[in-house]
Amino acid sequence: MTSGVERWVPGIALLRHYRRAWLPSDLVAGVVLAAILVPQGMAYAELAGLPAVTGLYTTIACLVGYAVFGPSRVLVLGPDSSVSPMILAAITPLLVVDDPTQAVVLAGMLSIMVGLIEIGLGLGRLGFVADLLSSEVQVGYLNGLAVTIIVSQLPKLCGFSTDADGFFDEVRTFLTSLDETQWRALVVGLGVLAVLLILPRLTTRLPAVLVAVVVATVVSAAFSLADHGVATVGRLPQGIPRPSLPWTSLHDVGLLLLGAVGITLVSLTDTIATASSFAARRGDEVDPDQEMIGMGAANVTAGLFQGFAVSTSASRTAVADQSGAKSQLTGVVGAGVVVVLLLFLNGLVADLPQSALAGVVIAAALSLVDLTALRRYARVRRSALVLSLVASVGVIVFGVLQGILIAIVLAVLLFFRRSWWPHGAVLGQVEGLEGWHSIDAFPAAAERDGIAVYRWEAPLFFANAGAFREQVRRLARRPGCRWVVLQCEAITDIDVTAAGMLESLDDELNDRGVHMAFVEMRSRLQERALRYGLLDTLDAEHFYPSMEAALAAIAEEPTDGDGGG
Asked: Which DSSP letter does residue 232 get?
């Protein structure tokens, strides 16, 4: 019974098996982590269109929730630059007026919905849904997202605000409002951005975001920038919120569903990839289903404490790992430090300029850009490049949620296209090379007289049965063709429709004096062909274990025979 509880609530196992020797490392790593959690939490909250303090509420709740239900010993969750814009896109259409309170409630509802979806996927052992976002879709989405984030933060970086809707409207409004630039705010924001981009190249011992935010706060206080029109964070509300169920109406639940599904896909893909990477370093194993449950618990907890949806942060996880974190107690300690800040030091960041937070967000957005992947796609597969660029353009032109939906739909369509019209190749023998090779890749490959050797590289099912038939017919029409030898190693399945097609195709070819032979077909599929009754039409002797066996048997066949096959 106890082991079952520990399976679903890993935090209990952590408490039972925790080693005292880990405590100093976890305490130090937790304090270091908190120094990064605070500025990033506030920055990503404002990126989501929410008060800065909700980022701290979210940080506390999700770290504790994941520590109880999450399986990874080092993974760090929290507000994320790739998720926050999706939250903004999901809740903005539901805001009747610019009401921060309603925005917080809607974000809380969204977070709980994301959490319940993730828990459901984990309990249903559906971890494979994280694979719905292919690497090219994810790269394209993040590249497009980076562009939209940077554009949305430019006004704040310059010390003013705009009321724009959509990417192109934001660009136009920003350019026409440049005369409102507050140069002091701009200098601070650019300074923060410079520190975040340069310092990590010089040393990894100092957390760049902490250095940048501390310096910006000190400079702001020393020169009284708030008195000169520079917008600052201000004193945070004291204390932490009590748990409550965020709710507006059932109508809003339906409208938030698309955003919840999109956030789930993005966060789970990132979480499992990050968890796998750090687990490999430590020799641990990743349980994708339990990771989903842990993520879900973290999101539900965040939603109950005036927070918003979260994801895994590779950068914060790396900081915890490099600081010597041994267990999820590191996250709990980090959450505890943030609690102390809210209870006793809520004025500590009052002088932090808003433009500094914009610099933090822009730096995070730049880290999302992956041009190297685009160059690789262009080199190895142009369709992957096109898909990635379409995802980027979709996010930029149509919006975050619509863009990712377009990319996913396109990825699914391309998948089906490859299954409907898979690659097939006519094979020949190449001097100096063993085996049979595509004549497209090796134009000098030699074919056997009267024999067409063809490889079909996909399952054979209803959607591509017609394409397969046409390919074989074309080969059978070759002058002097007597045999079509099908290399079946890549065929993983044959459905009822395809079986019927093979039966009628065999009759058709036999009438022309052309026969079919099957090479290297899996024994499982041969048994299935028997159940389908195909061997009543197809000659059972024309299924061969190797190409050599097939060719040797064909050589012994009478040239004027009219048997099946």
From this structure: B
3-state secondary structure of 456: strand
| Residue 399 region by backbone torsions, left for phi larger than 0, else alpha for psi between -120 and 50, else beta | left
Of the candidates 314, 341, 316, 343, the residue with the CA atom closest to the CA atom of residue 331: 316
Name, in order, each residue with C-beta under 8 angstroms of 413's C-beta and a sequence gap of 6 or more.
Answer: none
Beta-sheet strand order (sheet of 451-456): 436-438, 424-429, 451-456, 483-487, 515-519, 543-544
β-bridge partners, 472: none
Residue at token pair 């024994």: 523
How far, in Å, CA of 455 to CA of 489, rounded? 8
Q: Domain-by-domain residue ranges, the chain? A: 24-180+236-348+383-412, 424-556
Q: Which CATH number fits domain 424-556: 3.40.50.360, 3.30.750.24, 3.40.50.720, 3.90.1150.10?
A: 3.30.750.24
Per-residue model confidence as pLDDT tens digits over 486-520 = 999 989 899 999 999 998 998 899 999 999 999 99
Cα separation, 519 vs 374, in Å, equals 39
SS3 label, residue 560: coil
Residues 6+ apart with CB under 8 A from 205: none
**CA distance linking residue 84 with residue 54, whole number of Å:** 12
Q: Count the helix, strand and coil residues of the chain and give each as a percent rounded to the nearest 5.
A: 65, 5, 30
Is the pLDDT confidence value at 432 over 70?
A: yes
DSSP assigned state of 383? H
**pLDDT band at 288; cut points 50, 70, 90:** confident
What would the pLDDT profile of 155-202 be if each residue is shown by its tens digit?
999 999 888 878 899 999 999 999 999 999 999 999 999 999 999 999
Which amino acid does the sequence have at 240?
I
Q: How far apart are CA 385 and CA 136, in angstroms?
A: 7
Rounded Cα distance between 11 and 15, Å, is: 6
444 within 8 A of 430, measured Cβ to Cβ = yes
Question: What is the H or E stretch that residue 193 is in?
Answer: helix 183-202
Residue written as tokens 């984990």? 122
Listing DSSP states for 24-70 in one string gives HHHHHHHHHHHHHHHHHHHHHHHHTTS-HHHHHHHHHHHHHHHHHH-
Please check whether residue 519 is in contact with residue 544, taking contact to mean a CB–CB distance below 8 angstroms. yes
In 124-166, alpha helices (H)? 135-157
Specify the DSSP class assigned to residue 159.
Answer: T
Q: Is 163 helix (H, G, I), strand (E, B) or coil?
A: coil
Q: How far apart are CA 538 and CA 549, in angstroms?
A: 18
DSSP state of 516: E
Tell me the C-alpha distance between 109 and 117, whole Å.
12
DSSP 440: T
Count of residues in the chain? 565
Taking the CA atoms of the chain, what radius of gyration do you get in angstroms? 30
d(CA 516, CA 132): 38
For residue 486, report the phi and psi dihedrals to the nearest 5 degrees. -100, 115
Nearest-angstrom CA–CA distance, 340 and 356: 23
Nearest Cα neighbor of 258 from 496, 41, 138, 94 is 94
User: pLDDT at position 561, please?
Assistant: 46
